[in-house]
Amino acid sequence: MKFLIFILLAASALSLSSVAQTNPLPLGSVSQVSQVACTSQFKGSVCYQAKVSCPNTADIGVMWGVRGSGHKGTVVFLGGGGGTVPYGNSFYSRYDSAGLVSIEVAWASDWELAGSPFAANILSAACRPATLLNYFHSQMAHGSFCAQGMSAGSSQVAYSLSWYGLANELANAELISGPVLSNITDGCKVPNSSPTVRVFPTNGQPWSDPIAYFTEATALTVWTGNQCLPTTQSSLTVEESWDDQSTVQPGASLSFPNTNLSAWVCNNGLNPSAGQSYLFFSQVVTPFALTAITNCAGAEGVTSGYTPQGVLAQNAIEDDMVKQCVQKRPR
């Protein structure tokens, strides 16, 4: 089924792939790295802080915690929203037992916000997670290099793959409830004649899911610099700005022959995470897995839900990461 979906989608993705980037956007730099005492949010970790600098964005602070002593692979965890809270603790035990090192990341402020005096632009700001991932790959990774993102954390991974050349470094990515910034215009514009999309998972039955943002609109307004879901019709200029900040747009690289991609989304339609995720995967021209999760705890509670085969989603995600990441592609 995974390859069947790939064949069905290849034609619709042709127009995008024909203009896919040949040169990734430039990465920034990581500096002032120092070991620090962990905050209470990092459990049993060795912690570091640093500064990340990127073109057309303000410098941003970041802290990360490292756990595990294995040498079979490294997993970087990227959390949702602004990414300011570390994510991944519940997965540590399984990954550690498989020989994977875990790195949990917490940004000092929302990674999506370019910061003064620069114009708001999420695509430019996505240089930050891409630069940090590249730093981990070159300086800290053992064995295969992999990532796991939750909600907007999945977007950190998607931008890194599509725009910053990380497809040459990441062996596996588990994307949970995302990526959610695939088409910001369709999420924010008013009026929106097509506020839903039919999601065709590779594992599970199709369903209709929203693509327009709900409560997320407040954050999108700040991050993009334009009112998301305005009370009056959004202008063409504003919609073009949203287009230019979205993950999926002309110039994006959407072929990942060296990166296994697995996504896990709730099929309850309670927010646009699954719909936006599908807007990304419907344009990807290499094979991927997209699993529909039932009985989620809320809009994005994937880990407490179940796969179509009746497997607890947390266990299924862990099994897939271990299968795809452990010594898949050593550095």
What distinguishing features does this structure have?
331 residues; Rossmann fold; nine-stranded mixed sheet; 29% helix; globular; disordered N terminus
Side by side, the strands of the main sheet go: 1-2-3-5-4-6-7-10-11
Estimated structural class: alpha/beta
Bulk shape? globular
Examine the secondary-structure arrangement and name the CATH architecture: 3-Layer(aba) Sandwich
* SSE sequence, one letter per element: HEEEEHEHHEHEHEEHHEHEH
Broad CATH class: Alpha Beta
- In the CATH hierarchy, the third-tier topology is known as Rossmann fold
Proportion in β-strands: 15-25%
Residue ranges: pLDDT <50 for 5 or more in a row? Answer: 1-22
Extended strand count: 11
Termini separation comes to 31 Å
Q: Output the number of helix runs.
A: 10
Average pLDDT, to the nearest integer? 92
Tally of distinct domains: 1
Computed CA radius of gyration, to the nearest angstrom? 18 Å
Helix percentage: 25-40%
Q: Major beta sheet, specifics?
A: 9 strands, mixed
Q: Please name the fourth-level CATH homologous superfamily.
A: Alpha/Beta hydrolase fold, catalytic domain
